[in-house]
Amino acid sequence: MLKSIKIKNFKSVQDLEIELGRVNVFIGENGCGKTSILEAIGMGTAAFSNELNQSVLFNKGIRVTEGNLMRSAFDTSKGNTPIHIGLTNQAGNNLAYDIAVSGKSFEINKAYSNIDEQEPRRRMYEEILGILNKNKRLQKEIASELNKRKKTNQVKEDHAFIEKKFQEDLEIILKSSIDLDNDSNYWRKYIYLSNNRTKLEGFDVDDYMIYTPENHFLRRFEDEGQILPIGKQGEGLFKHLVELFKNDDSFAEDICKQLKLINWFDGLEIPSDLAFTEMRLNIKDRFIKENIEYFDQRSANEGFLYLLFYFTLFLSKETPRFFAVDNIDNALNPKLCRELINRLTELAKEKKKQVILTTHNPAILDGLDLKDDEQRLFVVYRNADGHTKAKRVPPPKDIDGIETVRLSEAFIRGYIGGLPKNF
């Protein structure tokens, strides 16, 4: 889980550092830079995966424009200054990137880290050696070579042999009759380490997304995105639901329990008689029992579809561990917003997710418990120079005999900021 982010020279963010919790809510007037912060994090996670290309950035939910609009334009004398994104995890490990911009192209100009990136590989060698002892076929071929290289201190510097051998044998190993059910993750993890940079513990950010679900994609399941399992606007939701209903024994019960936030809801299922190309959900209304047993997503109200999306996002093991949702209050009743945040916070803790949410709806704030350090509220604003800044809202202080003002009311009254001041 990330502890903090540092952003320099990105859009309206000139220089900003934010310490995150598990559930983070951003409020602020239109155009203050809430989404820009989310996009800057997306740039950093793309750099982490070495995938700073337009298609990846677009699919992450980043608005990619010309380079002079991606960098801050407050000081024209520093027009070629790279974008700087820094990520620090709970263990205090940090990664930072200077990202050069040319037109709509991006590349890592310089990377910084306080981490010994070979350490995860060294630990993997030890674990793999243990597995090889169970596998006589590979023991003679690889284990001796590994041990020899360890003795000559070549393990750290020279990975060519082992990478090549593991590439050749990976599919055979995973498909063989050898009982590696409990160990195959080691093989997969090693290949990931070898091929996709070092997967550093505590930096589970490579699949970070900014979700902006849209009614069209939530209602029309035919549309699919390039990102699996669920695209930034909700594409692919139906296919992922089918997989979850099929492979996760507890999912159906869990999602139905959460969806009962909607008063009329009485059940959800994947029809068993679907044609090959048919994509339809059966949704049950507890008030309709005689002539219509179920209706499908095309007849469902918009708020229900958004809830279905959000709860799937938090319940699924396949969705990102770290992500953002822009304007989470869209199409939802204020009281429902409050309870939604309450439940999503519980799910984030249970499923070990970390999330950043933006909102303009004061009711969202009432779902937060700011006395819990894992729940944080930030007011995003632009200072006198136009730079995007963020301040954390502290938990309200209890005063004997005086009722604490609700966060929603404090927001509306302007006590905590986040409202326009020009009218």
Report on this model:
It is a single chain. The chain has 423 residues and is of the alpha/beta class. The chain has three domains: 174 residues, Rossmann fold, CATH 3.40.50; 71 residues, no CATH class; 111 residues, no CATH class. The chain is 36% helix and 19% strand. It has 14 helices and 13 strands. The strands form three sheets. The chain has a six-stranded mixed β-sheet. Helix 12 links the parallel strand 10 and strand 11. Helix 10 packs across helix 11 and helix 11 runs parallel beside helix 12. The longest helix is centred in the C-terminal third of the chain and has 18 residues. It is globular and about 70 Å long. This is SMC domain protein. GO terms for molecular function: ATP binding; ATP hydrolysis activity.
Features:
3 domains; 5-stranded antiparallel beta sheet; alpha/beta; globular; 14 helices; 423 residues
Provide a compact summary of the structure:
This protein is α/β, with parallel strands linked by helices and 423 residues long.
